[in-house]
Task: structure prediction
Amino acid sequence: MTATTTPTVCRRVAAVPTPDGATLHATITGRDYAPVTVVMAHGWTLAQAAWDDVAELLTPRVAAGDLRVVRYDQRGHGRSTWGEADISIDRLGEDLGVLLDRLAPSGPVVLAGHSMGGMTIMALAAARPELFGDRVRGVALVSTAAGDLTSDPGSAPGRMASVSPRVLNAALAGARVVETLRRLLPPEHPRHQKMVRSLLYGADATDDMVLAGAEIMHASTLRSFIAFLPALEFHDKRQELAALARVPVEIFVGDSDNLTPRRHSNHLAEVLPEAALHVVERTGHMLTQERPRLVTDGIERLAAAALADRAAA
Result:
């Protein structure tokens, strides 16, 4: 019997400061001189752990020296701090630019964004278009939208946007009470998992997937939930996607996505006609967990294209 070995990869963590005083917590796997760096941005009330399954599937490529992977917690999420600036998706795009300048200052980059992470990439593309086609050589947009998130009152974002600021401020003021109530319904509780499953997952999601996602979200704070709601509502880059047309783009959406339904990905594909659109059956919003192999394959295609461009240059 032949023994199997786990690939050995270099791993380190970094604390990246932003101009307004936030600190972004990042995890880097792979050699600094790898030919392509993949940077992953997560969604609202999640953390870099939302990309764990995809990162694990990329491990053989990382161990072989083909890729370097950077995952980070967006400000106000995970182990990253808040800073002094107002919260907006544009601010998250600036953060991503700071992260690239610090952790991937040279060489081809592939960006991958899930949900709010995809919006972060769009904000960066609008603010710093010169990066796209030069440093940034490919983009994966997973379960995301360019804007118009709350126009459908029946959708989950639409229902959340209808909650009055007074109610949200009251909840934030009573955060200790609300957090105590949250602890009474932990992620392993059947009612908690039923709620998370119905909102975020498709028909084929396993109980383990739902529990893992519930645990990541439960670790997020009430402040993260409330403070980013207006940012999501006002996010609109539908007329500012030109820079993304300069690079290969892969778009993924689940056919059962309740947070960023398929119409948003259809719009992205219309604006970016050269992009590859993947509509995944029996899959919800948490595509990086539900179908990590599909997302990984897309990232590897983008990385291969980036390498080919580098060789041609």
Notes: Confidence is low (pLDDT under 50) at residues 170-175.
